[in-house]
Amino acid sequence: MKRIAIAGILTECNDFTSALITEADFERVELLRGDQILERNDGVVGGTLSELAKHAEFIPVPLLFTSTIPGGALTDQCYTTFHDEIIERLKAAGSVDGVLLLLHGAAVSVSVADIEGELLESVRKVVGSKIPIMVTLDLHAHITEKMVALSTALFGWETYPHMDSFTTGARAADLMVRTLNKEVNPVQVMARVPVLTSAINASTERPGPFFDLMKKAKKWEHEGKCLSSSVFLVHPYVDRPEMGSGALFVTDNDPQSAAKMAREIAQEYWDRRQEFEPQVWKAEAAIYDAIENQSGRSVLTEVADTCGGGSAGDCVAVLRALLDIDVNIKAIYPVVSPNAAAIAIKSGVGSEVNLQVGAEIDKKWGAPVSIKGTVLKVSNGNFMYQGGVWDGASGRMGATAVVRVGGIDIVIATFPTYEWRDEQYLSMGLNPSDYQLIVVKNPMNYFMTYSPIANNFYVIDSPGPTPATCKALTYVQRERPFFPFDTDIPGDTVKLYGAVNQN
Predict the structure, then answer these.
(1) H or E element at residue 447
(2) In sequence order, what are the beta bridge partners of 21?
(3) Residue 503: pLDDT above 60?
(4) Strands 382-384 and 394-396
């Protein structure tokens, strides 16, 4: 029998917001201990378990797995609590033959710049240098040299919008089986270039630069030139040294081939860097243009307030513009504003309320807006995700109210939640197809969701911790030069590390 430990701390962090992630945030979303992990049949956990189950001699040893929606850095207490519990459970489990770590790759705590790397280091101290450790990651991971050096193989998700956490878990478990059966001897090389951009032009499902890079990498993988390929657009909303994007290849004891393929993808990434910068609109201009476009519905994405990128969800730039323009256009708008939600719910359905909305949690991105409206609906804010990373899992907005101001229905939640499709709106009894103007707060999933019903899409340039272009942020730890601040950098911009440590 071969015993495979399974553990993970999975979330994405943001260094530009003041809203820290605590243990309560993980408890609200997903916190599984021991045999609770074995009950999961979906997501990255379900994928690893399903693959191991194909091999009777491989026994999962579940430790702790927890995930939550993105936010600021983890508090040190939160990170230390989960880190220490994983290590103690690993020690208590006794001898294991392999470790599967289900992580994100862009998590930090207040004091720890590389949570994934530190967790890998701690696991290595327990299991030693020869036990294989396979790690699953979001394709927005920040791949540090420590992560590459201490793992046997890293696996990035293959799709954006993210639809393959299950299959990525299965891929990692499959290589674990093949490695322990001595069928292969994995080695890996990462190639990184100094490019930080938002994910707006990084879909794997429609034409664009990231689509092409992923397609090329996966073609080589499917042709058998490597055991695994990953292309990474680094999450640009952490501020850490040497961040960058690129590619990682795992081969069967062929580091030179891994390096060659990784370098080619990374070089093309650098050569096409300008294509990743999006076209943006000011909120007022987008609204006026949407009003003039009577041909169909319009979607405005207030991407700078993306909860799925670590924002608190309480920026209100687009709402302010809608109210200032004061047209009777039917619009729907989401915001996190706990005090406003509480007042609306206490007042009751049908009540007239005066509220201060937004800027309650992360106050540095603008002032709240004052509204006078009617409470239309109230709810406990619970809903079910229909696909994506948390497919089948419960989402919890907390106490939530819908307040109508003129033609605008404002969904006011207590907690931020990840936007996959339109689950939040539908859970409140609101159908986006009933509105002329739909506001969302995500950089990618909006197109998948609304392209069947909308004709016009606008990426909004507004204040917030997840802006459409990184030019809007001030980096301290990520040293210059890097794109988009430096459009041309002399010399070789590709850095290789892993089984081949050379430029």
Answers:
(1) helix 445-450
(2) 74
(3) no
(4) antiparallel
Burial class (CB in 10 A: 0-12, 13-18, 19+), 409: buried
| SS3 of residue 456 by DSSP | strand
How far lies 146's CA from each of 89, 123, 142, 309, in Å? 23, 13, 11, 24
Pairing of strands 186-193, 495-498: antiparallel
Cα torsion angle, 331, 335, 341, 345, sign: positive
Give the alpha-carbon dihedral of 37, 43, 46, 51, to 10 degrees.
Answer: -140
Structural domain total, the chain: 3
CA–CA gap between residue 161 and residue 203 (Å, rounded): 7
Contacts of 121 (CB under 8 A, 6+ apart): 146, 150
Predicted pLDDT of residue 96? 98
pLDDT category, 50, cuts 50, 70, 90? very high
Range of the domain at 122: 1-183
β-strand partners of 248 = 190, 230
Residue 362: half-sphere exposure toward Cβ, Cα within 13 Å: 30
Length of the chain: 503
Q: Are 212 and 355 members of one domain?
A: no
**260 and 290 both lie in a single domain:** no
Asked if 171 and 265 sit in the same domain, the reply is no
Residue type (1 letter), 78: C
357's enclosing H/E stretch is strand 352-357
Is the same domain home to 331 and 457?
Answer: yes
Residue 367 backbone phi and psi in degrees, to 5: -90, 160
Number of alpha carbons in the 13 Å side-chain half-sphere of residue 311: 32
* Statement to judge: residues 118 and 262 lie in one domain: no
Amino acid identity for residue 357 in this structure:
V
Q: What percent of the chain has pLDDT over 70?
A: 99
Pairing of strands 30-33, 58-67: antiparallel
CA–CA gap between residue 42 and residue 9 (Å, rounded) = 17
Residue 235 contacts by C-beta under 8 Å, 6 or more apart in sequence?
12, 105, 106, 138, 140, 141, 142, 309
Instruction: State the first-to-last Cα distance of the chain, in angstroms, to the nearest integer.
Output: 42
Whole-angstrom distance, CA of residue 346 vs CA of residue 353: 10
Please tell me whether residues 164 and 204 are part of one structural domain.
Answer: no
Nearest 5°: phi and psi at 433? -70, -10
- Tokens describing residue 114: 């590389």
- 3-class DSSP state of 15: coil
Look at residue 502 and tell me whether its pLDDT is greater than 60.
Answer: no
